[in-house]
Amino acid sequence: MNPTYGYYPGCSLHSTGAEYDISFRAVCKKLNIGLKEIEGWICCGASSAHSYSKILSTALPMHSLIAADEMGLSEIVVPCAACFTRLKHAVHDTNHNTELEDQLGEIFNRELPKTIKVLHPLEIFSNEVDVAGAQVKDLSGLNVVCYYGCLLTRPPKVMQFDECEYPMSMDLLLRSIGITTLDWSYKTDCCGGAFSLTETDVVRKLVHDIFEEAKAVGANAISVACPLCHANLDTRQPEVEQEYNTKYNLPIFYFTQLIGLALGIPAEELAIQKHFVSAEGMI
Asked: Cys-Cys crosslink for 6: which of 69, 73, 145, 165, Cβ 3.0 to 4.6 Å?
């Protein structure tokens, strides 16, 4: 019997990153993985709270961890890279900082959950279910570079996820379902997601560099695991092409969408049609 996990979607997956939520839920349903969305979850404070207050930046994700604990959930899956890092920090920091733990215990008027596990979908798809055994569609025509972004593996002592500088979990998972993934040097470089509205010239340069390296190694698509990265690479591709007078034609997939396609889930049920850069003809 396949497991059931608590599910923390976070703000992005209920809005601009809806394709990630839709495709993740579809893949879990196909693989008989149970999900229980945490009741009363709130924003984790990513991109803002941790720059303002240590207590606030820990209290926000801790609220949702406590809600999960009160539902009897011991393992929570968190797809968004920003949410993943904030929830992991909340568990790590309160386990290693007695003063912070006491302050939050007083705020919430209860003991904090100390053993709850915060997991990424890549972990459960790689370790808990037989994804390869469920493959029904050939996607060998795709040559993908896996872009993990700068948050999933850093800092390593907190995240304890994959190899910090050269992660392979997404690559190995996609290879197991027949998708070619290519070695490249931009796996964990920042795309500038946190500055997408304030430093657009810097962001366009960072995104341009990512596209250039992807094309240089022969990629015809990019796989991501972060809604901020997806938004940057997908929505900015046309303006970067115009600024640098080039053409990339690089569809940006969530890795859950690629898994879903390999499992035979129709593209429209994975929300691929919502992307700015079309994948028509490739899948």
From this structure: 73
If we measure between CA atoms, which residue out of 96, 231, 114 comes closest to residue 155? Answer: 96
240 assigned to some structural domain:
yes
Coil, helix or strand at residue 119: strand
Could you give the angle at the alpha carbon of 46 between the alpha carbons of 153 and 162, nearest 5°?
10
Cis peptide before 266 (omega within 30 of 0): no
Q: Which of 233, 257, 194 is nearest to 22 (CA)?
A: 257
For 42, residues 6+ apart whose C-beta sits below 8 A from its C-beta are: 60, 63, 64
The end-to-end CA distance of the chain, in Å, is: 31
Question: Do residues 85 and 158 both lie within one domain?
Answer: no
143 lies in the same domain as 224: yes
- pLDDT tens-digit readout, 89-120: 999 999 999 999 999 999 999 999 989 999 99
- Rounded CA-CA distance 24/100 in Å is 34
At 188, phi and psi to the nearest 5?
-120, 15
pLDDT at 49: 77
Q: What domain count does the chain have? A: 2
Residue 281: pLDDT above 90? no
Tokens of 101: 């733990």
Cα–Cα separations (whole angstroms), residue 38 to 8, 42, 71, 159: 6, 9, 8, 21
Q: Which of 270, 260, 272 is nearest to 136 (CA)?
A: 260
CATH number at residue 43: 1.20.1050.140
Residue with tokens 């850093």: 154
102 Cβ neighbours under 8 A, 6+ residues apart: none
